[in-house]
UniProtKB/TrEMBL annotation:
Similarity comment: Belongs to the peptidase S49 family.
BP-aspect Gene Ontology terms: proteolysis
GO molecular function, a single term: serine-type peptidase activity
Source domain of life: Bacteria
Name the record gives this protein: S49 family peptidase
CDD domains hit by this protein: S49_Sppa_N_C
Pfam families tied to this protein: Peptidase_S49
Keyword Transcription: no
SUPFAM superfamilies for the chain: ClpP/crotonase (SSF52096)
Keywords: Hydrolase, Membrane, Protease, Serine protease, Transmembrane, Transmembrane helix
Domain annotation Peptidase S49: ranges: 130-267
Residue intervals passing through the bilayer: 30-53
Length: 311
C-alpha cells in the first residue's frame, strides 16, 4: 500500500471514530435528558399525590384521617411537625365532620409526643364542634398514647397493646470491657458534670440520682396529661395505671384508658356516622425518604442514644 493510500485510510478511520464517538455522546445525552425528565415527572407525581393533592371540595362531608405511624421522633413520619400539620389542615376544612387519628406507635420522644398532645387540645378548643377520635391499631403505647390522650374518644382493638405510661432512658456500661481490651480512656471536659452517665466511666450515685429526678419529672408531666384528658373515666390506682404496664385493648377499656373497641372503619361508619374518609396525613419529602432508606434512620438512632424516651 502506498504512503498516500495509507494516510487516506488512517484519516478515514479517524473520521469514522469521531463520528461514532459523537453518536455515543449524543445517545448518552439523550439518555440523561430522559432521566432528568423522568425525575421531574416523579417529583411532580409525588407532589400531586402528597398532602396537597386532596381536593376536599369534591370529597364533600367526610371524616378526616391523620396517621400517627412509627416511632415518634423529630424528622420522622411520626414527627410533631407532620402530624400537627395534618391535624390543622383537617380541622380547617369546612367539610370535616370529625377527625380520626389512626395510631400505630410504640412511643418515642417525650417532647414530640407532648407537642402533638398540646396541638390536639388547642385545636379542640378552637373547633369545639369537630370531635376527635383516636383509634389504636397494633400499638398505642407510651408516647404513642401520650400524643393522642387528649382525643375526645379513644378506641382500640381487643388485642391492641395499649398503655406503658412511663419513661425510660437506655444506656450501657463498658468500663470493664475497655480495661480488658487495654484501652485507655482519655476524656477532657469543661464543667464537672459534662461527662454525666458516660458509658466508659463508673456510674456515680449523684449522677444516677440526677437522671432519676429528670425521668420522674417527665413521668409526672405524662401522668398529668393523662389525668387531665381522661378524668373520671380512669378506673384504677395510680400505681396500677401509671407504673409503666401495658395492657390489651379489652383490659385498657376496663381501666378507662380507652373508651371502646373498634377499627378505624368501624369508628368512622358506626360511631361518627361518616364513612367517607379523606386522608390529610402529610408525607415526608422524597429526599427525606431516600435518606432514611440509606441509613439516616440509623444515624438518628445513634445520636438519640441516651436521651429520655417515652416508650
Amino acid at each position: 500500500m502506498s504512503q498516500e493510500n495509507w494516510e487516506r485510510d488512517a484519516l478515514t478511520r479517524i473520521a469514522l471514530a469521531g463520528v461514532q464517538e459523537q453518536r455515543r455522546a449524543r445517545r448518552w445525552g439523550i439518555f440523561f435528558k430522559l432521566l432528568g425528565f423522568a425525575y421531574l415527572f416523579l417529583l411532580l407525581g409525588l407532589f400531586l399525590t402528597g398532602p396537597f393533592a386532596t381536593d376536599t371540595r369534591k370529597a364533600g362531608p367526610h371524616t378526616a384521617l391523620v396517621d400517627l405511624q412509627g416511632v415518634i421522633t423529630e424528622g420522622s413520619q411520626a414527627s410533631a411537625d407532620l402530624v400537627t400539620q395534618g391535624l390543622r389542615n383537617a380541622f380547617r376544612d369546612k367539610n370535616t365532620e370529625a377527625v380520626l387519628l389512626r395510631v400505630n406507635s410504640p412511643g418515642g420522644s417525650p417532647v414530640q409526643s407532648a407537642y402533638i398532645n398540646n396541638e390536639v387540645r388547642r385545636l379542640k378548643e378552637a373547633h369545639p364542634d369537630t370531635p376527635v377520635y383516636a383509634v389504636i391499631s397494633d400499638v398505642g403505647a407510651s408516647g404513642g398514647y401520650y400524643a393522642v390522650v387528649s382525643a375526645d374518644w379513644i378506641y382500640a382493638d381487643a388485642s391492641s397493646v395499649v398503655g406503658s405510661i412511663g419513661v425510660r432512658m437506655d444506656g450501657f456500661g463498658l468500663v470493664d470491657a475497655i480495661d480488658k481490651l487495654g484501652i485507655e480512656r482519655r476524656l477532657m471536659v469543661a464543667g464537672d458534670n459534662k461527662a454525666l452517665m458516660d458509658p466508659f466511666l463508673p456510674v456515680k450515685p449523684e449522677d444516677q440520682a440526677h437522671v432519676q429526678r429528670l425521668l420522674d419529672n417527665i413521668h409526672t408531666q405524662f401522668v398529668d396529661a393523662v389525668k387531665t384528658a381522661r378524668g373520671d373515666r380512669l378506673n384504677g390506682s395510680d400505681e396500677e395505671l401509671f407504673g409503666g404496664l401495658i395492657w390489651t385493648g379489652d383490659e385498657a377499656l376496663e381501666l378507662g384508658i380507652i373508651d371502646g373497641l373498634g377499627s378505624p372503619g368501624y369508628v368512622a361508619r358506626e360511631v361518627i356516622g361518616q364513612e367517607n374518609i379523606v386522608d390529610f396525613t402529610p408525607r415526608q419529602d422524597l429526599l427525606r425518604r431516600l435518606a432514611d432508606s440509606f441509613g439516616a434512620a440509623i444515624g438518628r438512632a445513634i445520636v438519640n442514644l441516651g436521651e429520655p424516651a417515652i416508650r
